[in-house]
UniProtKB/TrEMBL annotation:
<dbReference type="GO" id="GO:0009103">
    <property type="term" value="P:lipopolysaccharide biosynthetic process"/>
</dbReference>
<dbReference type="InterPro" id="IPR001296">
    <property type="entry name" value="Glyco_trans_1"/>
</dbReference>
<dbReference type="Pfam" id="PF00534">
    <property type="entry name" value="Glycos_transf_1"/>
</dbReference>
<keyword id="KW-0808">Transferase</keyword>
<feature type="domain" description="Glycosyl transferase family 1">
    <location>
        <begin position="1"/>
        <end position="120"/>
    </location>
</feature>
<dbReference type="GO" id="GO:0016757">
    <property type="term" value="F:glycosyltransferase activity"/>
</dbReference>
<protein>
    <submittedName>
        <fullName>Glycosyl transferase, group 1</fullName>
        <ecNumber>2.4.-.-</ecNumber>
    </submittedName>
</protein>
<keyword id="KW-0328">Glycosyltransferase</keyword>
Length: 142
């Protein structure tokens, strides 16, 4: 398991996680990553998980889907509206349901493969730069 990203305002929680995982070589904390290292993480992920209770537009989710990742996200609107039916979803803050969805992903590689296959085409079509530019121009032309 790779836990990537900075801890922002959750240093205490991040330290608690590191302490809990200190004797398990299968759990890696990368801290903030970018560039080729981030590309490698997205390219090799089995499941990308975003268990947020609060988000703006989750750019890392868009990136993960564009790499063809199976995504597992909380049901907050900011995530659910991005993934629609192209990802696994769990009720926000419901740790047991998150655990169940992760186990389901581990037990059903064919399901994960289906989400992976759909993710990149879906997200690249939904959020294409050409469409973003067109919509932005429409706003300015008003």
């Amino acid at each position: 398991m790779v836990i990537a990203g900075g801890s922002s305002d959750t240093d205490e929680f991040a330290n608690e996680l590191r302490q809990m995982a200190k004797d398990d070589e299968r759990i890696i904390f990368t801290g903030f990553v970018q560039g080729e290292e981030l590309d490698e993480l997205y390219s090799n992920a089995y499941v990308y998980t975003l268990p947020s209770d609060l988000e703006g537009m989750p750019l890392s989710l868009l990136e993960a889907m564009s790499y063809g990742n199976c995504c597992l996200v909380s049901d907050i609107d900011e995530c659910a509206s991005v993934v629609e039916d192209k990802a696994l979803v769990f009720e926000k803050s419901n740790v047991e349901q998150l655990k169940e969805r992760l186990q389901e992903a581990c037990d059903k590689p064919e399901m994960v493969a289906g989400y992976k296959k759909a993710a990149a085409d879906f997200i690249c079509e939904k959020y294409s730069w050409d469409d973003v530019v067109d919509k932005t121009m429409e706003l300015y032309r008003g």
